[in-house]
Amino acid sequence: MITKFKSLTFGFVLAMAGAAQASAEVVLRYAEAGPNRGTRAAAVQFYADEVERLSGGDIKVDIHWGGALLKWSGVMSGVSAGSADLGSVLSSYEPQELKALAIGDIPLEYADPWVGMRAMYDLMTTESQLQESLAGQSLVYLSNFSTTGVQFECTEGNQIHTVGDIKGKRVRATGTYTNVLAELGADTVSMTFGEVYQALDTGLVDCLASYFYTMKAYKTYEVVETVTRVDWGQLLGFAIVINEFVWSDLNGEQQAIMLQAGSNMIDHFARLTIEDAEKVAKTLANGGFGKVVPVIRMAPEERQKILEATLPFRDSWIQDANRRGMDGQRIWDRYIGLLEQYQSEFEVNGYPWQS
After folding, report:
1. Could you tell me the fold of the domain covering 150-232+294-310?
2. Is residue 41 classed exposed, middle or buried when 0-12, 13-18 and 19+ CB atoms within 10 A define those classes?
C-alpha cells in the first residue's frame, strides 16, 4: 500500500509539473550505501548529472550517500518498497531475490570492466526473462558497476602464485569467489573490508581476494608483501535499479533518458576504473605508497586452472534459472556471446574514449 500510495503521489507530481510547464518538479531519491569518495562515487554523481543534463533539468536525482537513507543490506528491499526511488544494489546481499543480476557474479576470464559492464547492460535491458525476474521484486534495471578483476594480496611467506599455493591459506573473499577458493583448498574467511587491514596485520588472514582500488582505499599495501595479478572475473551483479512503480509513472522519453544516462555512465566509470587500477599497480611496484609491493602476474596455465574450477558454479546458475522458469542455458549463451562481442570490439578498436 505504501508503494502504491507513493506511486500515485509521484504520478500526481508529474501531472502537476506537466500542467504548470515546470522543469524541476521530478526529484528522485537515490540510496547509495557507499561513501561520497572514489571512482564509483564519481560514477554515481555522473549518472545523476547526466539524468539532469539529458532531461534539460526536468529530472533531478537526489543522492543520499553513505547509507544515510538505506544500508547495503537494505537497499534492494527499500527501493522495492518505495523507501527510495532508485539505488545501488549488490546481488551478493540478496542472491535469491537478485538471481537475474547474479549471472554477472560468476567468475570468468573476462576481467575488463568496460567489456563486462557493456555486456551486462545489453543483456539486462533486452532479456525479458531477466527483466521479469527483477520485476518480481518491483525493480527495473538502469545501469551497472564493476569491481574489476580479482587479485591476490598476501602477507610475508604466504604468496599465491599457483593453484597449489591456495591450499591451506586463510583467504578473505566474497560471493562465488569464496566457494571456488574453498573448493581449491583455501580456508575462507568472511569479513567486511573495514576489518581486513587488522586481520592481515594480526595474521587472522594470510591473503585477500581483492581489487586494486581497495588496496589504495584501505591501505592494505602497508601490511602485505606481494600482489599476484590474476585478473580473475569481476563482480557485475552490481547495478542501479529503480522502483517499478516509479518507473511506470515516467513517460517514454523520461525512461529513455534514465537508460541513456546509465549507458553513458558505464563508459565514464570504466575509464576511471581502468586508469585508476593501472596507476595503483604501478605505484605498488615502484614504492610510491611508501614501500615496494611487487606485482607478479599469475602464469596463464595456473590462471586457467582457477577458471576451470569455476565451471560447476556456472552450471549451478543455469540450473537454478531453469527451476525459476527461465531458459538458463539460452540466457547464459547470450551473455557469453555479448562478452565475446565486446572483448573483440575492444581488441580491434580499443575503448570508445580512445577513438
Report:
1. D-Maltodextrin-Binding Protein; domain 2 (3.40.190)
2. middle
